[in-house]
Amino acid sequence: MNLLDFVLFAPAAAFVIALLIPRNNPGLSRMFTLGASLVIFLASLLLIGGVSAAPREFRFVTDFQWIQSPNIRYHIGLDGLSLWLVVLTTMLTPIAALISWTYIDQRVKEFYAFLLLLEFGVIGVFVSLDLFLFFVFWEVSLVPMYFLVGIWGHERRIYAAVKFFLYTMVGSMMMLASMIWLYGKAGSFDYGIILDGLRTGKIALTSTEQLLLFLGFFLAFAIKVPLFPLHTWLPDAHVEAPTAGSVMLASVMLKMGTYGLVRYNLPLFPQASRDSAPWIVSLAIIGIIYGALVAMVQPNMKKLVAYSSVSHLGFVVLGIFSFTQQGLDGAVYQMLNHGVSTGALFILVGYLYERRHSLEISSYGGVATLAPWLSTVFLLTTFASIGLPTLNNFVGEFLVLQGAAKANFSWAVFAAIGVILSACYMLWMYQRAFLGRAGESLAHHMHDLSPREWAAILPLVALMIWMGVYSQSFLPPVSAQNAQILEQTKRNVDFRVSNHAIQELGNVR
Amino acid sequence: MYDKFIPTAADYVRFAPEILLTVFGTLIMLIEAGRKEDQRRPYGILSLIALAGAIYLAFPAYNNAGPAFQGMLIVDGFGTFFRVLCYVAAALAVLCSGQYLSREKADSGEYYSLILFSVVGQGVMVTANELLMVFIGLEISSIATYVLAGFLRDDQRNNESALKYFLLGSFATAFLLYGIAWIYGLTGSTDLSLIRAALGSANPPNVILTGTAAALMFVGLAFKVSAFPFQIWTPDVYQGAPAPVSAFMSAGPKAAAFAILVRIFMTAFEPIAARWEPILWVTALATMVVGNFAALAQVNIKRLLAYSSIAHAGYILVAITAQSQIGISAVMFYLAAYTFMNVGAFAAVTHLAGKDEKYVNIEDLAGLGQRQPVTAALLSVFLLSLIGVPLTGGFFGKFYIFKAALDSNLVWLTVLGLLNSAVAAYYYLRVLVVMYMQDASAEVPAPKPVSGGILVALVGSAVATVILGVFPSVILNFAGKSGTLNP
Q1: B393 interface with A at CB cutoff 8 Å
Q2: B419 — contact with chain A (CB < 8 Å)?
Q3: A180 vs B contacts (CB less than 8 Å)
Q4: Who's near B66: CB < 8 A, 6+ residues apart?
Q5: What 3-state DSSP class applies to B277?
Q6: Which residues of B touch A170 (CB under 8 A)?
Q7: How far apart are CA B166 and CA B147, in angstroms?
Q8: Quick one: closest CA in A to B437, which residue?
Q9: ipTM above 0.90, yes or no
Q10: A135 vs B473: CB contact, 8 Å cut-off?
C-alpha cells in the first residue's frame, strides 16, 4: 500500500464513513467531508515530488491480480500526464465541499457522501493502468454525478441527469466492446503490456481493426469531452446541476475524456489517430467557434459558461490531434487551466445565485458597486478565461495555437477566431451583470464575499496567476510524458509501415 | 440383467438433495393436515431447513460426480451449479413469502410444499441426461409453478395469471414433447450422448427432420425462458402472480430452463450447430430488443421487471449463441448474478406492494429514498446491477457474455447487445429517479420499515450482488471449470 493507493482509497473509505454519520447532524457531514478531502489533498501533494523526478515512468505503482480469468489486474500508477489531474481533483473536492456549505440544505449527508464517491471514481480513472480497471472507474464516477444532478439540481434536473447518464452509457458501451476485442488480441487488459505488444508487433491489428477500435474508444471520450456534435448533454447537465456538481463536472469530469484521448487513443491506435486527425480537428474547430457563438447569445449565465466549455475543450482536442509537442503540451495544460478558471467561474456564478436566486444575466446589473470584491474576482476570472497574458489560459491557448500552426496554419487561424469570440461573450456578460446601475431589489440581496467564500475561491485565483506567470512549475513533467507519447505514436506507425512493407516484399518473392 | 436396474448407493447420494426436498415437501403437507387452527405454522422454517439441507447434500453428490440411475441423470459441475442456484433462489423466495402470505391471510402449508416440489423438478431438469427426464423434471417444476401463480384463489389477477401460464405453458411443453418424439424416431434414443453420436455419425439421419425436431424442442424451451416470440405470457403472469412467486418464477425455473437449453443444444444437437446458430442469433437479438423497448413504456414495476427479465434472457441467449466453453461459463455466471439481483428487486417489491399489492406502480415509489432509506438503497443496488454498472454482479455478467460473444466473432450481436443495455439503463434509471428525485405522494402511505425474512433476503441478495461484482472469481472459477459438458 503506497501513497497513491491511499489517495485513491481514502475517498472510498470516507464515503463509507460519511454514510454512517447520522442524518440529523448535517454539520458533522460537512465538517467530515471537508476534513477528509483536505487530508487527501495534502497527501496528493506529496505525490508531486516522486513523479516530477521521473515523469516518463509510472511511479507509485501497485500491481496485483484482481481476477484470474479473464486476466484483470489492479494496476495503478502515476506519471507526468496524470499527476496534475489527480491533484486538480483532490484540490477541487474540498472546494466543492466548501461552496456547498449553505447552498445544500436538503439531504446534506447524502450529498457529501456522493461528493466523496465522485472523487474516488475520478481519481481512479486518472490512475488506472489496466483498461478494465479504467472502465470500472469510468462507470463508477457516473453514478454519483447522476445523483448530484438529479437530486440537488434545478427544475429540469431529472431530464438533465438521465440525458447525461444515457449519453455516457452509449459511449462507454462501445468502449467496452473495443476493450474486449483488444483483450482478445492481447490476452491482457494491462496498459503497459498492450502498448508493448503493439510496439513489438506481438499484437497485430489490421488498419480497419485499428480504425474501429479507435472509434470505439473515441466515441466514449468525445461524448465526455464533449466534442461537437455530441455536446448537447453538457449545457443541460451544467445548468441543472448544483454549483458543486457543475464545478466537478466541468473541472474534472470533462478531463476524463481528453485524458482518455491522450492516454489511450494516441499511443494505442497511432495510425488511426493520425488518419482521422483532420476530421477530428474539423469537429474541434467547429466546436470552438460554434460554442463561442452560442455562448454569446445565452441569457443564462451557467449556460453561457457551459457553452464556453465546449469552446475551450475544442482547443484541447485541437492540441491533441495536432501531433506536435507544443500542441500536446498546450492541450494538457489547457485541461488544467480550464479546470481552474471554469471551475472558478461556476463557483462565482453559484455565489451570485445564492444571493439573488437567479441565473439570468438580466436579473443582475451593477453588482460591482454592491459587491466590489466579488466583482473583482469575477473580472480576474473572466480575464483568465479569455486568455489574457500573465493568466493561465493564455499559456495553454498559445501553445495549442502554436502547435496547430505547425501542423496546419489554417487550423490556427480558425481556432484564433474562438479566442476573439471568447473575449466578446465573457466581457459582454460581465458588462451586463456587474456594471451599470444596480436595481433596488438587487441591492437588497447582494453582499460581498464571506470568509468561507473567500477560502473557496482564493486558491483558484492564486493558481490562475501562478500558472499564467510561471508555467515552469507545472509544465516540465507534462511535457516529458507528452514527448514520450508522441514518440509512441510515431514509433508504432513506423513499425507498422515497415512491417507491412516486409510482408509485401515476402509476397513478391 | 435385472440387477442393473437396482439403484446403487452412489445413485442415492447423487440424488439425495431431491429426495430430501420431496420428504420435507410431503412432511409439510402432513403437518398442515393435522394442524389445529391456533397452532403456529412452522412451514417457512421447515422449507428453509430443507433447502439448506439440499444445498449441503449437493456437495457430497458433486464429490461423487457421475451418472445416476443408469445414465438417466448426471451429476456434474454444470448440474450441481444450477442445482444449488435453484435452491438458493427458492430459499430467497421462501424468505420473502412468510410476511407476504400472512399479510394476504393465505399462510398455508401447500404453498411451501409447492415451492419445494417445484425445486425438485428443477433439480431433475438440470441434472437430466436424457430427454424424458428433462420432460419429467420440466413438468414437475411447471405444474407446481402453475398452481403457485394462482395461489391467492380469490384474487382475479392471480387467476388470470395462473390460467394464462397454464394454457400457454402446457401448449409449449407439448411442442417439446413432440420434438422429443421426433428425435426418438430419428435416432432411436432419448439419451443425450447417444443422440449426439447418432447425429454426428458418418451416416446421420435426415438433416431437415432433425432440424425440425430441434426447432420443436427449441419452441418449448424458448417459452420457458421467455425468449421472443414466446415471451408474451411473461408480463401478464409476473404481474398477476403473488410477488414472491414472481420472484421465484423469474429465477429458479428460468435458470433450470436455461440449463437444459444449454445442455441439450450444446451436447445432443452440437453436430448440427451450424443450423441452429442463426436462429439463436436472431432470437437473442429480438428478445433483447423486445424486452428492452417494451420495458420503456411500463408503469407497473412488476411488469417492468418482467420485461427486463425478457431482455436479460436475450443477453443470456447471446452467450449461448457463442457456442463455446467460455460462453457456457458466462451463462452460468450471469444466471447466478441475475438470480440475486432480480429476486432482490422482487423482494423489495414484495415488501413495498402493501396489502393486496395495491402499490405496484413505479410512481408509488416516490420519495422512498427519504421514507425508507435502507430499502431504497438496497433496491438501488439491484437496479444498478441490472443496468450493469461496475462493482455489481450484473456488470461482470454482461462483461463475460459479451466477451464470449466477441471471442466467437459475434461482433454485430455484441454491438447491438451493448447498445441495448444502454437503452435498458433508461427504464431502470426511471425507478431510481422516482425513488430519490421525486417527493412522496400523500396518497401512498409510508411503507413500514422492512424486517424479518424480507430483510434477510434483501441484504443477502445485495451482499451477493456486490461480492459477485468485486470478486467474481468466487463463482467464475467454478463456472469455468464446469463449462465443459461431457455428454
Answers
A1: no
A2: yes
A3: 399, 402-403, 406, 414
A4: B10, B14, B74, B75
A5: helix
A6: 419, 422
A7: 9
A8: A151
A9: no
A10: no
User: Inter-axis angle of helices A191-200 and A157-186, to 10 degrees?
Assistant: 50
Amino acid at B160: E
Q: What is the DSSP string of A5-57?
A: HHHHHHHHHHHHHHHHS-TT-HHHHHHHHHHHHHHHHHHHHHHHHHHHHSTTS
The amino acid at A398: F
Query: For chain A, what are the domain ranges?
Result: 271-473
- Strands (E) across B206-256 are located at none
DSSP, res A435: S
Partner A contacted by B409 (CB < 8 A): no
- Other Cβ atoms within 10 Å of B201 Cβ, number: 11
* CA–CA distance, B151 with A124 (Å, rounded to integer): 50
Greatest Cα-to-Cα distance within chain A, rounded to the nearest angstrom: 89
Q: Compute the distance between CA of residue B119 and CA of residue B88 in angstroms, rounded to an integer.
A: 10
User: Which candidate in A9, A157, A180 is best for mutational testing of the B interface (most B CBs within 10 A)?
Assistant: A180
What is residue A58's predicted lDDT score, i.e. its pLDDT? Answer: 85
Specify the DSSP class assigned to residue A103: T
Using a CB-CB cut-off of 8 Å, the residues of chain A touching B407 are: 184
| CB-defined contacts A:B, below 8 A | 80
What is the mean pLDDT of each successive set of 10 residues along chain A, which is 509 residues long? 87 89 85 91 88 83 82 87 90 91 83 91 92 90 87 84 86 88 86 84 83 90 88 88 89 91 88 87 92 91 90 91 88 91 91 85 82 89 89 89 88 88 90 82 80 89 90 84 81 49 51
Residues B342-354 as b or e (16 or more Cβ within 10 Å = b): bbbbbbbbbbbbe
What pLDDT score was predicted for residue A323?
87
Q: In sequence order, which ranges of B64-200 are alpha helices (DSSP H)?
A: 77-103, 109-127, 131-149, 156-187, 192-200
C-alpha cell at B283: 432470437
State residue A498's pLDDT score: 44
Q: Are the CB atoms for A109 and A18 separated by under 8 Å?
A: yes
The pLDDT, as a whole number, for residue B2 is 60
| Per-residue model confidence (pLDDT) at position B408 | 87
With beta carbons less than 8 A apart as the criterion, state whether B265 and B352 touch. no
- B412 and A CB contact within 8 Å: no
In 3-state terms, what secondary structure has residue A67? strand
Amino acid at B344: G
What pLDDT score does A492 carry? 53
pLDDT at A493: 52
B226 touches A: beta carbon within 8 Å: no
Distance between CA atoms of residues B349 and B96, nearest Å: 10
Name chain B contacts of A158, Cβ cutoff 8 Å.
Answer: 433, 437
Closest alpha carbon to B341 in B198, B461, B486, B179: B461
Angle of helix A131-140 versus helix A142-152 axis, rounded to 10: 10
Please tell me whether residue B44 adopts helix, strand or coil conformation: helix
Interchain contact, B370 vs A107, CB within 8 Å:
yes
pLDDT per 10-residue tile (average), chain B, 487 residues: 73 89 91 77 87 91 85 88 93 90 83 93 92 92 91 85 90 92 90 87 85 91 90 90 91 92 89 86 92 89 92 93 88 93 92 83 85 88 90 89 88 87 87 84 79 88 92 84 69
Strand, coil or helix: A62 = strand
